[in-house]
Structure formats: C-alpha cells, structure tokens
Amino acid sequence: MVETRLPRNPQPKEWLAKDHSLQYIADYKPFNFVDGEGVRCSLYVSGCLFNCPGCYNKAAQNFHYGQPYTQELEDQIIADLSQSYVQGLTLLGGEPFLNTQVCLKLVKRVRKEFGHEKDIWSWSGYTWEELMKESDDKLELLHYLDILVDGRFLLAKKDLTLQFRGSSNQRIIDVPKSLQQGKVVIWDKLVH
Ligand code: SF4
Prior knowledge:
Cofactor: [4Fe-4S] cluster
Bound molecules: iron/sulfur cluster
Family: Belongs to the organic radical-activating enzymes family.
Protein name: Anaerobic ribonucleoside-triphosphate reductase-activating protein
Radius of gyration: 16 Å
InterPro entries: Aldolase_TIM (IPR013785), NrdG (IPR012837), Organic_radical-activating (IPR034457), rSAM (IPR007197), rSAM_sf (IPR058240)
CATH topology: TIM Barrel
Strand content: 15-25%
Organism: Limosilactobacillus caviae
Strand order of the largest sheet: 3-1-2-4-5-6-7
CATH superfamily: Aldolase class I
C-alpha cells in the first residue's frame, strides 16, 4: 500500500518538553563517522511526536524507550568528547527539542568543559522557521548549537544520496550565522 499519511504539524508551543519528556535515552554512540562532520559522539534521546512515515528510528518515538539519562552517562560523554580526535557532540532522537531538559544540561556542560573547541550538531523535526516561534527552552537549546539539520522526514522527498539528510526538504543550517543574519544560512561545507 502506498503511504499517503504526512508527519504531524504542531501549532507554535503546542508540544512542550515539560509535558512530554521522560528524560530517557534511546542510545549513545561514541566515536562514529555518520552523524555529522568528523568523528562524533551521538546521543539519541527518546520521544518524538512528529510521527513521520518512514521514520529512521521509529522505536525512539516512544518517550519511554531505552534508559533514563544519568550523571554517569553524561560523565562518559564528556570523557569521550575529550579525546583529541573527536570533533563534537551530535543530538538526535527522537526529538532533541522535546527533550530539552536533557539536551540543555548536556550542551551547557560541553560548553563549560570545552568552550567552542568541540562543535555541537542537532537534528530536529522542527523547521528553523517553526523553532523561531517556539518555547524559550527550545530557543535556548538552538543558541547552543553550531549546526541544525531541520525538518520532518518526508517520504515523497526521500533521497539517500544527500549528505547527512534523508529527504530533500531538510537543510544543514549554520546556526550562529543564521541567528546573526536573521535568516537561514546553509552550512558552507555542504556538498550535496
Ligand atoms: S522527526 Fe525524526 S524522529 Fe521524529 S518521527 Fe520524524 S523522522 Fe522520526
């Protein structure tokens, strides 16, 4: 059967981390090469409400999937990031912006320990334009990022050849430049 359903479209501030997040972690993958530029440590948070058909990580749509986030895991992530060959941290899910309690705690620690020596990437089902109208916690998290890969996964726009993205509507956004210029600025190392 052909899938005709589309991802869900929330109103601004309709979905809030405080109402949904259980602060669970679906997975943690240190030292990988696929979740952004360079060698990365990736945290997969649990819970997402977008319900995109064809979601790459359907199990992690459940806010109760996996394990609770712990101080021990955070300390391990910081120890792994301290390796000189690791470029940075990646947040994925699930939906990082519906798990801001966990993600904000971690990104603040990363900036405290490493400043901007390590970069921070995040994926989100929210688009940049949607995040601009979102709750304070989501905007705060955005301000800690270097790169945002934005937007739902759309089966109709699926393209497996794209760099770091599953569908062609998604963008790799340079967050500091976009905030500074008040408009989306695409990552200048984008290949395709
Ligand atoms: S936004 Fe990402 S994690 Fe959420 S349902 Fe869509 S593809 Fe899955």
